[in-house]
Design brief:
With 870 residues, the protein is of the alpha/beta class. The chain has 29 helices and 27 strands. The strands form five sheets. The chain has a seven-stranded mixed β-sheet, with helices on both faces. Strands 3-4-2-1-5-6 form a six-stranded mixed β-sheet, sandwiched between helices. A six-stranded mixed β-sheet has the order 11-10-7-8-9-12.
């Protein structure tokens, strides 16, 4: 180390404190990276890798860099690649320091702690999530640093914690270091996946330390003051987030001013499987927002409204009073004129939550303050519109919306209308805001005018019309005279520099004004920066007021969005009550009906209850619409309980506590689970956790194994859901096993329905209508033909189907599935016997049988054979 330059020694010392981060080391106008950081960053950023002075062993030192004033896109790219970036700044003025400038890491940017707009999706939260355990309880806490949203909860076991984490979809996960040794990390593999996982020292997960962290961040005596009693594991998880936040941000995030504890049972519970199968926020096939329920429903005009709508979809309500409040607000917002005025005002509102975050974290620009002012200026007009509304929810929103006129006035007086991006070059603070600044600007402007007048005076005094007064950073102001005019130079001119064709001079008077003007300009820049930071601190002190107003504006935006959706798509208000009936008339799938699929969407009715129609057994061919029908019921229930109007003529929803789905088939090879194992695991969870208030959607259960096993499992599952009062969930059960329709004969609350189809000229026509009764055929071969299977395969399939439907074995004992009318060997008529007959053949066959080793199924097959022989 002693052979290294002072700068490299400083770099290596700082890098040693941040081994898992790429260090952006400030050198002048660049952030430089060295050694392994440079090699990695150059590859990710696709920038040139070079080298500088050799190190002590004679090897080149890899080097790359990015301009400091445009570093954000590079940081965003590194974060997207899953890297952490430590920002190391010069914390001393190079002009006032002899030797090397002191540098410190001022913040660490990680995937979960991004605040720069370039790195964020406007309508998506960016969460960092923490796990902790206390006894059998698992705590989950998550923070969006860009908005200040902070929540915690507690669940039983790692599976529940994983389900909640999957819903949150964090960018970064914090876990105790001990998880590496005790096996807990393996139980989180379903959510850790590709996400960056950071291990936190175990001593952080201490109740006393957590109390100190809460006091420091929130100014409360204990976490209980924030409603966190009963969440010991959740408090430990939240404390780990706050600890990590202070370590990386090198200070307190003032806009993280509260934390919201919640219990998942306070909402309609949706596990990861249900969210995925119902395509709530992303499609299953491509993971895209477009084509999901969120993509269909989002009519919000603000980024914060878009994020809140996603939260409402992920956490539907079970409180009837809160659901009714939202419905009342949506209904009152249906008139286009009122809604248009509100949307018009909200359209000009920037992302107040993230503006507030950047201001509090000292990363805001002058343009951010202007955006805040312009947004707040719209609030008085918005409040004027809202005064005409009477619903309780909007009235409560109005009471909580703060116009923050003091901040509007401060920013309006202090910041110019269109400030520059850079904070260090001046031109930010408005005239009239600060007396000293105005005086310095007057001196600067007057000084420059004086230079122009001095140039005219010197030309007249010397008679040299080509004389010029110019400026550069090396010499300052100087008088330049061409060689042809040197004879006219006055005696008080002091030579400064000789050029090939001219001489440069200064005078005492010129030097005096130069010092005055340049000193004023330097002081102006320094003072403007100081005044801006002072203003930013003043605004940051009001972060709680800004956050409350932003939250209420976001809620208003979502309500207006739901009203716009209802108006546009012809949705109606559902009745949500405490009954057990889910009764829907003319229900439609909200997403599919909006697609251009070349055919009219066919609405369907449904009645589910706990008395006569608890389990609907739905049969019918593939592609007929069974899955669409079942999903649309689940989505209508979900939309009803989030307070939205629904795509139905009428709907009455007995409040649902949880939606379960078992749809489709997929391997989970990473966890060593086959398709059938995944199917059975999901089915087992449903049978354990479903209640009489749940909604269960089962699509083709038992298809991942043999036919007899599949039928048996599906039959037993249906019986279990029907017979167990504590698990008798309202259930939609789609199947191709026609044997299951027999359950309706023995189970009073099971009803058969099928998707109507028609056959015409060997064609299958899907009518998309659900009707009472079971289907008589699956029409699988017709669907296979529609899919494009070769005609020879289709014909052979029909032949095999006929053989199977007649029986498994031929009269000769040959499996009928192997038989073929086209390829069958010629049949030979047996020789007629004068004495023998069919009875003799039956007797001979019976003599051949070994009944002691025959299975029941074999006995039935032989009995069928003998019957045909008689």
């Amino acid at each position: 180390m002693s052979e290294l330059t002072p700068m490299m020694r400083q770099y290596l010392e700082i890098k040693a404190d941040h081994p898992d981060s790429i260090l952006f080391f400030r050198l002048g106008d660049f952030y430089e990276m060295f050694l392994d950081d440079a090699v990695k960053a150059s590859r990710i950023l696709d920038i040139t890798l070079t080298s500088r002075n050799k190190n002590s062993d004679g090897a080149d030192v890899p080097l790359c860099g990015v301009p400091y004033h445009s570093a954000n896109p590079y940081i965003a790219k590194l974060i997207e690649a899953g890297e952490k970036v430590a920002i190391c700044e010069q914390v001393e003025d190079p002009k006032s320091v002899k030797g090397i400038v002191r540098r410190e890491v001022v913040r660490v940017v990680t995937p979960g702690l991004v605040v720069d707009a370039d790195c964020l999706s406007p309508k998506e939260n960016n969460y960092i999530l923490s796990f902790a355990t206390s006894g059998e309880a698992w705590g989950v806490a998550y923070l969006d640093l860009s908005t200040g949203e902070f929540r915690l909860t507690e669940l039983e076991g790692s599976s529940g914690a994983c389900a909640e984490a999957a819903c949150v979809s964090p960018r970064e996960i914090l876990v105790p270091a001990v998880f590496r040794e005790n096996g807990s990390l393996a139980s989180l593999s379903s959510v850790t996946g590709e996400r960056i996982v950071t291990f936190v020292d175990d001593w952080v997960y201490d109740a006393d330390y957590a109390g100190r962290v809460f006091r420091n961040q929130f100014g409360v005596e204990s976490p209980d003051a924030l409603g966190c009693e009963g969440f010991p594991a959740g408090v430990l998880a939240a404390a780990a987030v706050l600890h990590y936040l202070e370590e990386t941000q090198k200070g307190k995030a003032a806009h993280v001013s509260t934390i919201t504890p919640y219990k998942t049972r306070e909402f309609l519970v949706l596990d990861e499987t249900a969210r995925r199968n119902l395509e709530l926020t992303a499609t299953m096939s491509e993971g895209k927002r477009r084509g999901s329920l969120l993509g269909l429903m989002d009519r919000t005009v603000t980024a914060m409204g878009g994020r809140k709508l996603k939260q409402w979809i992920n956490y539907p309500l079970i409180s009837l009073s809160h659901i009714k409040e939202r419905q009342d607000a949506v209904e009152e917002l249906l008139p286009a004129g009122l809604r248009g005025e509100i949307v018009g005002q909200l359209t000009g509102v920037y992302d107040l939550e993230r503006l507030n975050g950047r201001i509090s974290l000292a990363s805001a620009s002058a343009k951010d303050l202007v955006a805040l002012r312009e947004s707040l200026q719209r609030i008085p007009s918005l409040l004027d519109v809202l005064t005409s509304m009477s619903c309780a929810l909007v009235r409560s929103l109005v009471d909580g919306i703060d116009p923050l006129t003091d901040l509007v006035d401060l920013i309006g007086r202090g910041i110019v209308e269109n400030p520059p991006f850079s904070l260090r070059d001046g031109g930010i603070i408005a005239d009239g805001y600060h007396a000293e600044l105005d005086d310095l600007r007057s001196i600067s402007r007057e000084g420059k005018g004086y230079i122009a007048r001095l140039e005219a005076k010197e030309r007249e005094r010397t008679g040299i019309t080509s004389l010029k007064i110019r400026y550069n950073k090396v010499f300052g102001y100087y008088i330049e005279v061409t060689r042809a005019n040197l004879a006219g130079i006055p005696s008080d001119y002091i030579r400064k520099q000789t050029l090939a064709n001219a001489e440069r001079y200064i005078t005492p008077e010129l030097k005096e004004y130069e010092e005055k003007v340049l000193g004023a300009e330097e002081r102006i820049t320094e003072l403007e920066y100081a005044l801006f930071q002072e203003m930013r601190v003043t605004v940051a002190a009001q972060s709680e007021r800004i956050a409350r107003t932003a939250d209420r504006l976001a809620t208003l935006d979502v309500l207006a969005s739901l009203a716009e959706l209802a108006h546009e798509r012809g949705y109606n208000r559902p009745v949500v009550d405490e009954g057990d009936a889910i009764a829907i008339t003319d229900g439609r799938h909200p997403v599919i009906e909006a697609m251009s699929l070349g055919e009219r969407f066919v609405p369907n009715d449904v009645l589910l209850d706990g008395s006569e129609n608890q389990l609907l057994m739905i049969t019918g061919p593939n592609m007929a619409g069974k899955s669409t029908f079942m999903r649309q019921v689940a989505l209508i229930v979900l939309m009803s309980q989030m307070g939205s109007f629904v795509p139905a003529g009428e709907a009455r929803i007995g409040v649902v506590d949880r939606i379960f789905t078992r749809v489709g088939a997929a391997d989970n090879l990473a966890r060593g689970q086959s398709t059938f194992m995944v199917e059975m695991t999901e089915a087992a969870q449903i049978l354990r956790e479903a209640t009489s208030r749940s909604l269960v959607v089962l699509d083709e259960i038992g298809r991942g194994t043999s036919t007899f096993d599949g039928v048996s499992i599906a039959w037993a599952v249906a019986e279990y859901l029907h017979d167990r009062p504590d698990h008798a969930a309202r259930t939609l059960f789609a199947t191709h096993y026609h044997e299951l329709t027999e359950l309706a004969v023995t189970r009073g609350r099971i009803k058969n329905f099928n998707i109507a189809v028609r056959e015409w000229n060997d064609q299958i026509i899907f009518l998309r209508k659900i009707v009472p009764g079971g289907a008589s055929h699956s029409y699988g071969i017709q669907v296979a033909r529609l899919a494009g299977l070769p005609l020879t395969v289709i014909e052979r399939a029909r032949e095999i189907l006929q053989n199977l439907e007649k029986g498994e074995f031929s009269a000769e004992g040959i499996p009928r599935i192997a038989g073929s009318r086209k390829n069958a060997a010629p049949k030979h008529s047996p020789q007629l016997s004068l004495f023998g007959g069919e009875g003799d053949r039956v007797v001979e066959r019976l003599k051949e049988l070994n009944l002691s080793v025959m299975t029941p199924l074999e006995a039935l097959n032989v009995l069928d054979e003998l019957k045909r022989m008689v």
